[in-house]
Amino acid sequence: MTNALALIGARIRQAREKIGLSQEAFAEAVGKDQTAISQYENGLRKLPAVELIRFAEVLIVPVSYFFGEDMTLDSLDQLMLTEFRKLPTIEAKQAAVQIVRLLRESTDTDTR
After folding, report:
1. In b/e form, how buried is each residue of 25-41, taking b as 16+ CB within 10 angstroms?
2. Distance from C-alpha of 20 to C-alpha of 57, rounded to nearest angstrom
3. pLDDT of the chain along its 112 residues, tens only?
4. Which of 7, 54, 56, 59 could form a disulfide bond with 15, CB atoms 3.0-4.6 angstroms apart?
5. What is the pTM of this model?
6. What residues have CB less than 8 Å from 53, skipping those under 6 apart?
7. What stretches of 1-112 show up as alpha helix (H) in DSSP?
C-alpha cells in the first residue's frame, strides 16, 4: 500500500464517517460496490482521479480534502451553500434558514 493510496483511503473513510454514511450507502451513492469502497478506504485499490469528483460531491468535501487539506471556514460555507441549493422548494429553503438561525441562537455565547 502506497502512502498516497493510504492517505486518500483514510480521508474517504473519515469524510464518510463524518456525515454518517455506511460503506454500503456510500457505495450505492457513487455507483460502486461495498467491496470496492472497502478496498479504496484501506489503500488496496487505486481510485481513478475522475471518480474523486463524484466522491467529493457525495461526501460534501472539496477534492483537495483527499490530499490532506482540512476543511476551512470558506469550504464549510461553500458546503452549506451547496446543500442549501439542493433543497427542492422555497419552503424547504425557508425551513433550513430557520433551523440555522435557531442553532445559532442556541449556541450564542453572549449572556442574555
Report:
1. ebbebbebeeebbebbb
2. 15
3. 468 788 889 999 999 999 999 999 999 999 999 999 999 999 999 988 889 889 999 999 888 888 776 656 666 677 678 788 889 999 999 999 999 888 888 887 654 4
4. 59
5. 0.61
6. 63
7. 3-18, 23-30, 34-41, 49-59, 73-85, 90-106
Distance CA 6, CA 42 (A): 6
The x, y and z cell numbers of residue 7, run together, are 492517505
Task: List the grid coordinates of 66.
Answer: 483527499
Output the nine-digit C-alpha cell for 111.
449572556
As given in the structure block, the three cell numbers for residue 33 are 460496490
